[in-house]
TrEMBL record:
Taxonomy, superkingdom: Eukaryota
Domain Reverse transcriptase: 172-294
Protein name from the UniProt record: Reverse transcriptase domain-containing protein
Lineage, opening ranks: Eukaryota, Metazoa, Cnidaria, Anthozoa, Octocorallia
InterPro entries (UniProt xref): RT_dom (IPR000477)
Amino acid sequence: MFIRLRNYATFFMKRARRHFYTNFIAENSNDQGKLFRAAKSLFVQKSELTFPDYRNSSALANDIGEYFVRKIDRVRSELDSVNPTEDFTSCTVSHSVTPIDSFNKLDKKDVRELIAESSKKSCSLDPMPTPLVLECSDVLLPSITRMINLSLEVGTFPEPWKLADVHPRLKKPGAESAFMNLRPISNLTFVSKLTERAAFNQINQHCLENNLYPKNQSSYRKLHSTETALLRVKNDILTSMNKQHVVLLVLLDLSSAFDTVDHTILLNRLNSTFGITGSAHKWFNSYLTRRSQFVTMIHNSTSHLNPTMP
Protein backbone atom coordinates (compact mmCIF):
# COMPACT_ATOMS: atom_id res chain seq x y z
CA MET A 1 0.00 0.00 0.00
CA PHE A 2 2.76 2.46 0.95
CA ILE A 3 4.72 1.82 -2.26
CA ARG A 4 1.62 2.30 -4.41
CA LEU A 5 0.69 5.58 -2.71
CA ARG A 6 4.29 6.77 -2.93
CA ASN A 7 4.33 6.06 -6.67
CA TYR A 8 1.02 7.90 -7.09
CA ALA A 9 2.39 10.93 -5.23
CA THR A 10 5.61 10.90 -7.26
CA PHE A 11 3.65 10.66 -10.52
CA PHE A 12 1.35 13.58 -9.70
CA MET A 13 4.23 15.76 -8.46
CA LYS A 14 6.20 15.16 -11.66
CA ARG A 15 3.14 15.89 -13.78
CA ALA A 16 2.40 19.09 -11.85
CA ARG A 17 6.02 20.21 -12.17
CA ARG A 18 5.99 19.46 -15.91
CA HIS A 19 2.74 21.40 -16.42
CA PHE A 20 4.06 24.33 -14.39
CA TYR A 21 7.21 24.73 -16.46
CA THR A 22 5.37 24.13 -19.73
CA ASN A 23 2.96 26.95 -18.91
CA PHE A 24 5.79 29.14 -17.60
CA ILE A 25 7.73 28.78 -20.86
CA ALA A 26 4.62 29.49 -22.94
CA GLU A 27 3.71 32.60 -20.93
CA ASN A 28 7.27 34.00 -20.99
CA SER A 29 8.34 32.96 -24.48
CA ASN A 30 9.15 36.61 -25.31
CA ASP A 31 11.06 37.29 -22.09
CA GLN A 32 14.51 35.75 -22.40
CA GLY A 33 15.52 37.11 -19.00
CA LYS A 34 12.84 35.18 -17.10
CA LEU A 35 13.51 32.01 -19.10
CA PHE A 36 17.24 32.25 -18.41
CA ARG A 37 16.74 32.78 -14.68
CA ALA A 38 14.33 29.84 -14.49
CA ALA A 39 16.76 27.56 -16.34
CA LYS A 40 19.62 28.74 -14.16
CA SER A 41 17.70 27.94 -10.98
CA LEU A 42 17.08 24.41 -12.27
CA PHE A 43 20.46 23.48 -13.70
CA VAL A 44 23.08 25.69 -12.02
CA GLN A 45 23.96 24.72 -8.49
CA LYS A 46 24.89 27.58 -6.18
CA SER A 47 28.50 27.25 -5.08
CA GLU A 48 29.35 28.08 -1.50
CA LEU A 49 32.41 30.19 -0.73
CA THR A 50 34.82 28.38 1.56
CA PHE A 51 38.07 29.91 2.78
CA PRO A 52 39.57 27.51 5.37
CA ASP A 53 42.43 29.91 6.18
CA TYR A 54 39.94 32.46 7.51
CA ARG A 55 38.19 31.90 10.81
CA ASN A 56 36.97 35.48 11.02
CA SER A 57 34.42 36.42 8.36
CA SER A 58 35.00 40.12 9.05
CA ALA A 59 38.70 39.78 8.17
CA LEU A 60 37.74 37.82 5.06
CA ALA A 61 35.31 40.55 3.98
CA ASN A 62 38.01 43.20 4.47
CA ASP A 63 40.59 41.28 2.44
CA ILE A 64 38.15 40.61 -0.40
CA GLY A 65 37.14 44.27 -0.47
CA GLU A 66 40.78 45.37 -0.60
CA TYR A 67 41.44 42.85 -3.38
CA PHE A 68 38.63 44.26 -5.53
CA VAL A 69 39.95 47.81 -5.11
CA ARG A 70 43.60 46.85 -5.73
CA LYS A 71 42.62 44.96 -8.87
CA ILE A 72 40.94 48.05 -10.31
CA ASP A 73 43.90 50.24 -9.35
CA ARG A 74 46.32 47.82 -11.02
CA VAL A 75 44.39 47.65 -14.29
CA ARG A 76 43.85 51.42 -14.21
CA SER A 77 47.58 52.09 -13.74
CA GLU A 78 48.41 49.82 -16.69
CA LEU A 79 45.95 51.73 -18.87
CA ASP A 80 47.40 55.07 -17.77
CA SER A 81 50.78 54.02 -19.15
CA VAL A 82 49.30 53.91 -22.68
CA ASN A 83 49.18 57.18 -24.62
CA PRO A 84 45.69 57.55 -26.14
CA THR A 85 45.38 58.75 -29.71
CA GLU A 86 43.69 62.03 -30.55
CA ASP A 87 40.81 60.16 -32.20
CA PHE A 88 40.25 58.20 -29.00
CA THR A 89 40.00 61.21 -26.71
CA SER A 90 37.90 63.44 -28.96
CA CYS A 91 35.38 61.22 -30.71
CA THR A 92 32.58 63.08 -32.50
CA VAL A 93 29.73 62.03 -34.78
CA SER A 94 29.50 63.09 -38.40
CA HIS A 95 25.95 64.44 -38.14
CA SER A 96 24.41 67.17 -36.00
CA VAL A 97 22.99 66.15 -32.63
CA THR A 98 20.07 67.82 -30.89
CA PRO A 99 21.45 68.66 -27.42
CA ILE A 100 19.75 67.58 -24.23
CA ASP A 101 20.44 69.97 -21.36
CA SER A 102 17.93 68.69 -18.82
CA PHE A 103 15.77 65.69 -18.00
CA ASN A 104 12.03 65.70 -18.44
CA LYS A 105 9.92 65.68 -15.30
CA LEU A 106 8.29 62.36 -14.43
CA ASP A 107 4.69 61.99 -13.28
CA LYS A 108 3.33 59.28 -10.98
CA LYS A 109 2.31 57.14 -13.94
CA ASP A 110 5.90 57.13 -15.25
CA VAL A 111 7.27 56.10 -11.85
CA ARG A 112 4.62 53.41 -11.46
CA GLU A 113 5.80 51.92 -14.76
CA LEU A 114 9.42 52.08 -13.58
CA ILE A 115 8.48 50.20 -10.42
CA ALA A 116 6.60 47.55 -12.42
CA GLU A 117 9.65 46.97 -14.63
CA SER A 118 12.17 46.88 -11.77
CA SER A 119 13.60 43.93 -9.88
CA LYS A 120 11.72 43.12 -6.69
CA LYS A 121 14.90 42.26 -4.77
CA SER A 122 15.65 44.10 -1.55
CA CYS A 123 18.97 45.57 -0.47
CA SER A 124 20.32 45.82 3.07
CA LEU A 125 20.58 49.58 2.52
CA ASP A 126 16.86 50.02 1.84
CA PRO A 127 14.95 51.64 4.72
CA MET A 128 12.12 49.16 4.08
CA PRO A 129 11.93 45.87 2.11
CA THR A 130 11.06 46.23 -1.56
CA PRO A 131 7.99 43.91 -1.35
CA LEU A 132 6.59 46.20 1.36
CA VAL A 133 7.27 49.24 -0.85
CA LEU A 134 5.30 47.57 -3.64
CA GLU A 135 2.39 46.81 -1.32
CA CYS A 136 2.32 50.45 -0.19
CA SER A 137 3.15 51.93 -3.60
CA ASP A 138 -0.03 54.01 -3.79
CA VAL A 139 0.93 55.80 -0.57
CA LEU A 140 4.66 56.06 -1.30
CA LEU A 141 4.39 56.94 -5.00
CA PRO A 142 4.21 60.75 -4.56
CA SER A 143 7.32 60.77 -2.34
CA ILE A 144 9.30 58.47 -4.64
CA THR A 145 8.30 60.56 -7.66
CA ARG A 146 9.41 63.75 -5.92
CA MET A 147 12.80 62.26 -4.95
CA ILE A 148 13.50 61.11 -8.51
CA ASN A 149 12.45 64.44 -10.03
CA LEU A 150 14.53 66.45 -7.56
CA SER A 151 17.63 64.40 -8.39
CA LEU A 152 17.17 64.82 -12.15
CA GLU A 153 16.17 68.49 -11.94
CA VAL A 154 18.98 69.64 -9.64
CA GLY A 155 21.57 67.45 -11.35
CA THR A 156 22.66 65.69 -8.17
CA PHE A 157 22.75 62.00 -7.32
CA PRO A 158 22.47 61.84 -3.50
CA GLU A 159 25.47 60.45 -1.60
CA PRO A 160 23.50 57.68 0.22
CA TRP A 161 22.41 56.32 -3.17
CA LYS A 162 26.04 55.87 -4.22
CA LEU A 163 26.81 53.29 -1.53
CA ALA A 164 26.82 49.65 -2.68
CA ASP A 165 26.55 46.48 -0.59
CA VAL A 166 28.84 44.04 -2.44
CA HIS A 167 28.32 40.28 -2.22
CA PRO A 168 31.16 38.21 -3.72
CA ARG A 169 30.12 35.30 -5.96
CA LEU A 170 32.14 32.70 -7.82
CA LYS A 171 32.41 33.50 -11.53
CA LYS A 172 31.82 29.85 -12.45
CA PRO A 173 30.08 27.09 -10.47
CA GLY A 174 32.56 24.65 -9.02
CA ALA A 175 35.50 27.02 -9.31
CA GLU A 176 38.09 27.16 -6.55
CA SER A 177 37.33 29.60 -3.75
CA ALA A 178 40.08 32.08 -4.57
CA PHE A 179 39.91 35.87 -4.71
CA MET A 180 40.74 35.87 -8.43
CA ASN A 181 37.66 33.71 -9.12
CA LEU A 182 35.26 36.08 -7.40
CA ARG A 183 32.85 38.50 -9.05
CA PRO A 184 31.54 41.48 -7.03
CA ILE A 185 27.75 41.72 -7.13
CA SER A 186 26.69 45.23 -6.11
CA ASN A 187 23.37 45.76 -4.36
CA LEU A 188 21.94 49.28 -4.46
CA THR A 189 18.94 50.95 -2.88
CA PHE A 190 15.62 50.56 -4.66
CA VAL A 191 15.01 54.28 -5.24
CA SER A 192 18.54 54.76 -6.64
CA LYS A 193 17.89 52.04 -9.22
CA LEU A 194 14.58 53.68 -10.15
CA THR A 195 16.38 56.99 -10.69
CA GLU A 196 19.04 55.30 -12.82
CA ARG A 197 16.32 53.72 -14.97
CA ALA A 198 14.51 57.06 -15.32
CA ALA A 199 17.70 58.72 -16.57
CA PHE A 200 18.54 55.79 -18.84
CA ASN A 201 15.13 55.80 -20.51
CA GLN A 202 15.46 59.46 -21.48
CA ILE A 203 19.09 59.19 -22.63
CA ASN A 204 18.27 56.03 -24.56
CA GLN A 205 15.43 57.80 -26.37
CA HIS A 206 17.78 60.72 -27.11
CA CYS A 207 20.35 58.32 -28.61
CA LEU A 208 17.73 56.57 -30.74
CA GLU A 209 16.29 59.83 -32.08
CA ASN A 210 19.76 61.13 -32.98
CA ASN A 211 21.11 57.82 -34.31
CA LEU A 212 23.97 57.83 -31.80
CA TYR A 213 24.37 54.11 -31.21
CA PRO A 214 27.16 52.35 -33.14
CA LYS A 215 25.74 50.18 -35.90
CA ASN A 216 27.06 46.92 -34.47
CA GLN A 217 26.41 47.56 -30.77
CA SER A 218 24.39 44.68 -29.35
CA SER A 219 24.38 45.41 -25.62
CA TYR A 220 22.10 47.80 -23.74
CA ARG A 221 19.76 48.13 -26.72
CA LYS A 222 16.22 46.93 -27.14
CA LEU A 223 15.92 43.89 -29.45
CA HIS A 224 19.71 43.44 -29.27
CA SER A 225 21.60 40.89 -27.17
CA THR A 226 24.48 38.43 -27.15
CA GLU A 227 22.28 36.30 -29.40
CA THR A 228 22.07 38.96 -32.12
CA ALA A 229 25.83 39.58 -31.80
CA LEU A 230 26.59 35.87 -32.26
CA LEU A 231 24.24 35.65 -35.23
CA ARG A 232 25.97 38.63 -36.85
CA VAL A 233 29.45 37.16 -36.31
CA LYS A 234 28.39 33.72 -37.55
CA ASN A 235 26.76 35.22 -40.63
CA ASP A 236 29.87 37.28 -41.43
CA ILE A 237 32.08 34.20 -41.07
CA LEU A 238 29.88 32.03 -43.30
CA THR A 239 29.56 34.79 -45.90
CA SER A 240 33.34 35.23 -46.05
CA MET A 241 33.92 31.47 -46.27
CA ASN A 242 31.45 31.20 -49.14
CA LYS A 243 33.51 33.83 -50.95
CA GLN A 244 36.66 31.75 -50.35
CA HIS A 245 38.08 34.40 -48.02
CA VAL A 246 40.36 33.66 -45.09
CA VAL A 247 38.57 34.28 -41.79
CA LEU A 248 40.39 35.48 -38.67
CA LEU A 249 38.43 36.00 -35.45
CA VAL A 250 39.99 38.14 -32.72
CA LEU A 251 38.33 38.08 -29.29
CA LEU A 252 39.17 40.67 -26.64
CA ASP A 253 38.44 40.00 -22.98
CA LEU A 254 38.76 43.16 -20.88
CA SER A 255 39.36 42.81 -17.16
CA SER A 256 37.20 45.12 -15.00
CA ALA A 257 36.10 46.95 -18.15
CA PHE A 258 33.43 49.15 -16.55
CA ASP A 259 35.38 49.73 -13.35
CA THR A 260 38.34 51.20 -15.23
CA VAL A 261 36.47 53.64 -17.47
CA ASP A 262 38.14 57.05 -17.41
CA HIS A 263 35.52 59.43 -16.05
CA THR A 264 37.04 62.50 -17.69
CA ILE A 265 36.93 60.90 -21.13
CA LEU A 266 33.42 59.58 -20.50
CA LEU A 267 32.05 62.96 -19.42
CA ASN A 268 33.72 64.65 -22.41
CA ARG A 269 32.14 62.07 -24.71
CA LEU A 270 28.72 62.66 -23.20
CA ASN A 271 29.09 66.33 -24.07
CA SER A 272 30.88 66.29 -27.43
CA THR A 273 29.42 63.10 -28.93
CA PHE A 274 26.02 62.72 -27.31
CA GLY A 275 25.11 66.38 -26.84
CA ILE A 276 24.43 66.05 -23.11
CA THR A 277 24.85 69.44 -21.42
CA GLY A 278 23.48 71.53 -18.56
CA SER A 279 21.89 69.87 -15.54
CA ALA A 280 21.76 66.53 -17.37
CA HIS A 281 25.56 66.51 -17.72
CA LYS A 282 25.88 67.71 -14.12
CA TRP A 283 23.75 64.74 -13.00
CA PHE A 284 26.10 62.27 -14.72
CA ASN A 285 29.10 63.95 -13.13
CA SER A 286 27.48 63.62 -9.71
CA TYR A 287 26.44 60.04 -10.43
CA LEU A 288 30.00 58.96 -11.25
CA THR A 289 31.89 60.66 -8.42
CA ARG A 290 32.37 59.89 -4.72
CA ARG A 291 30.94 56.38 -4.88
CA SER A 292 31.71 53.85 -2.16
CA GLN A 293 31.05 50.23 -1.32
CA PHE A 294 31.41 47.64 1.41
CA VAL A 295 31.71 43.86 1.17
CA THR A 296 29.35 41.60 3.11
CA MET A 297 30.35 38.08 4.13
CA ILE A 298 28.08 36.05 6.44
CA HIS A 299 26.58 39.12 8.13
CA ASN A 300 29.98 40.82 8.54
CA SER A 301 30.91 43.86 6.48
CA THR A 302 33.97 45.90 5.62
CA SER A 303 34.35 49.59 6.21
CA HIS A 304 33.47 51.78 3.21
CA LEU A 305 35.82 51.43 0.24
CA ASN A 306 36.07 53.67 -2.80
CA PRO A 307 35.74 51.88 -6.17
CA THR A 308 35.66 53.65 -9.52
CA MET A 309 32.53 52.92 -11.51
CA PRO A 310 29.01 52.19 -10.17
